Recover the amino acids of this structure.
């Protein structure tokens, strides 16, 4: 037996180096996610995704946007968000999700990264995930796993994004573990006047503090 | 489908707390409410580790940081290698390791780094590789310099390399910093000190002549230990 390697903070200069062109566009061919503006001239080594075929990903295109606030209410402008999700049919692109009756999407990985901007805001383009199995024979409501890390964070904070217009949130086995009064902090709300843009603000304190998970 | 085999939980006696007041930036960035413990579902035990996924997302590996520009960087060339294991000492293959560091003068290429030290046109400080079937990895880089920061008057970060490990599962994501043995700044560092004392040596590399290359580079070994599982899951 060996002991777990301890976490250490990312520091302030971490996230610009782990983004790639399209890191925040999981279902399109844009460069969303790359931040060459953070890099000194001559040092942009941001990698292009090439012809990955992401624009051929199946599923309903959605956009996830929001802002992140520290526990005093000030926007955080230097943190990184990572997302992990199933494809539109509800299957993860991972060997352990070996359900033959749910199709993989050859163009979809399901992992995204987006760095906060000077207003603490982020934007991610993806597809609406399908439902995946939960404990026992339950089904989970559509959700995106989200990790938040950056300077001042001694380790990653982990949460989930659910969708306000999903019919299945009431039966979700993980949401059921969250005190009812705090469940709304995990539910992205549709932006007025848009067809598929969802807002998910993250608060580290105050009355609307987001629920973070011990996983 | 059967419930997935869960990963071990965070060893709270070895991991930093969410907030550590000596590290001032953490005071406003720790959640106020307790975390909600959830079981490991398919969401938590999966992650972006399929064969070739990393090349598809980010392009080919770049594990020699001294050969990413026209010329060679200034500084002491070093080899940093090791293995990624789980708590049961099983190798963890197909895990992406990303590396970020300052140059030999202690300066990052980030636009916001205002330290009065020169940039090196031949060194960016970014690298990436994927572990092999035995969990091995290897980087060639230069030894980073120490640099001052704003945590306290005359506070300096010890030389360190940031490492990010991702792949096997969303649950066992790891970002850490590797330090160098015998660094007099290490015991003074608020970030290193956030790790409980008994686990602090786990973030210090081992000087290793066996992997040094004569007339070329000295070497350090650094193994990563990710959260493990009590049983091996079935794969297709």
């Amino acid at each position: 037996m060996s002991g777990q390697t301890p976490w250490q903070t990312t520091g302030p200069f971490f996230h610009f180096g782990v983004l790639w062109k399209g890191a925040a566009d999981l279902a399109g061919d844009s460069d969303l996610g790359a931040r060459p503006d953070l890099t000194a001239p001559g040092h942009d080594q941001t990698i292009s995704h090439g012809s990955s075929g992401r624009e051929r990903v199946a599923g309903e295109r959605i956009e996830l946007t929001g802002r992140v606030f520290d526990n005093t209410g000030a926007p955080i402008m230097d943190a990184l968000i990572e997302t992990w999700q199933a494809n539109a049919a509800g299957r993860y692109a991972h060997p352990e999700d070996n359900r033959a009756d749910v199709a993989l999407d050859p163009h979809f990985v399901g992992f995204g990264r987006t760095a906060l901007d000077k207003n603490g805001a982020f934007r991610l383009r993806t597809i609406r995930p399908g439902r995946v199995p939960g404990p026992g024979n339950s089904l989970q409501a559509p959700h995106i796993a989200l990790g938040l890390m950056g300077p001042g964070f001694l380790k990653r904070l982990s949460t989930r994004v659910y969708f306000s217009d999903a019919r299945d949130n009431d039966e979700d086995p993980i949401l059921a573990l969250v005190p009812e009064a705090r469940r709304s902090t995990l539910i992205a709300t549709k932006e007025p006047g848009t067809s598929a843009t969802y807002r998910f603000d993250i608060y580290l304190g105050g009355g609307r503090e987001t629920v973070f998970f011990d996983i | 489908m059967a419930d997935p085999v869960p990963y071990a939980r965070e060893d709270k006696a070895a991991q930093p707390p969410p907030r550590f007041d000596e590290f001032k930036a953490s005071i406003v960035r720790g959640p106020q409410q307790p975390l909600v413990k959830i079981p490991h579902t398919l969401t938590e035990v999966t992650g972006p580790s399929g064969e070739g996924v990393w090349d598809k997302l980010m392009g080919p590996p770049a594990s020699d940081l001294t050969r990413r520009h026209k010329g060679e960087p200034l500084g002491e060339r070093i080899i940093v290698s090791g293995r990624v294991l789980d708590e049961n000492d099983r190798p963890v293959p197909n895990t992406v390791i990303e590396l970020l560091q300052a140059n030999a003068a202690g300066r990052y290429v980030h636009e916001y780094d205002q330290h009065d030290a020169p940039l090196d046109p031949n060194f960016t400080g970014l690298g990436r590789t994927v572990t092999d079937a035995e969990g091995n990895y290897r980087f060639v880089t230069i030894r980073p310099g120490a640099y001052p920061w704003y945590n306290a008057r005359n506070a300096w970060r010890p030389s360190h390399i940031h490492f990010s490990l991702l792949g096997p599962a969303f649950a066992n994501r790891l970002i850490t910093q590797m330090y160098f043995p015998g660094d007099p700044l290490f015991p003074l560092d608020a970030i290193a000190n956030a790790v409980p004392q008994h686990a602090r040596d786990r973030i210090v590399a081992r000087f290793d002549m066996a992997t040094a290359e004569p007339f070329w580079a000295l070497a350090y070994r650094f193994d990563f230990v990710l959260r493990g599982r009590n049983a091996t899951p079935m794969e297709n």
Observations:
- Chain B touches chain A through 91 residues (CB under 8 Å).
- The domain at 24-226 of chain B is CATH 2.60.130.10 (Protocatechuate 3,4-Dioxygenase, subunit A).
- Chain B has a mean pLDDT of 94.
- The helical segments of chain B are 42-45, 53-58.
